[in-house]
Design brief:
The protein has 115 residues and is mostly helical. The chain has helices spanning 3-21, 24-42, 52-67, 73-86, 93-104.
Length: 115
């Protein structure tokens, strides 16, 4: 397993754990952040199929929220991971996508998601 895959597994594990352990108010906050992240990335074009600009934007926003210990960071990091998985260049990207879909079912999302 390569280093990037291991880091993504760790990040997705942390993200899923944060959502699973959160109460309804925190899940609502995470869902709102996820929706905001989805809105943001739709305005950032892919760079020749590369989602890096979208990923970087989400990671920066997640870091801002994490710096002030705001649970919203989880919604932003989930979107960043989802964007990387959607590039479909990772080994086992389909398994990552299944985990993300199951994780999204834990959030009170108000409408259809982008992916």
């Amino acid at each position: 397993m390569d280093d990037e895959t291991e880091k993504l597994i760790d990040t997705l594990d942390w993200t899923c754990g944060m959502i699973a352990q959160s109460g309804s108010d925190d899940r609502q906050r995470i869902a709102l952040a996820y929706s905001q992240a989805q809105d943001l990335i739709t305005g950032i074009p892919l760079d020749g199929g590369d989602a890096r600009p979208r990923i970087v934007a989400c990671l920066q926003r997640s870091n801002d929220y994490r710096a002030v210990e705001d649970i919203a960071c989880v919604g932003w990091i989930l979107t960043a991971v989802q964007e990387r998985v959607n590039e479909r260049t990772l080994p086992d990207w389909r398994q990552f996508r299944k985990v993300i879909k199951q994780t999204l079912k834990l959030l009170p999302l108000s409408g259809p998601t982008m992916h």
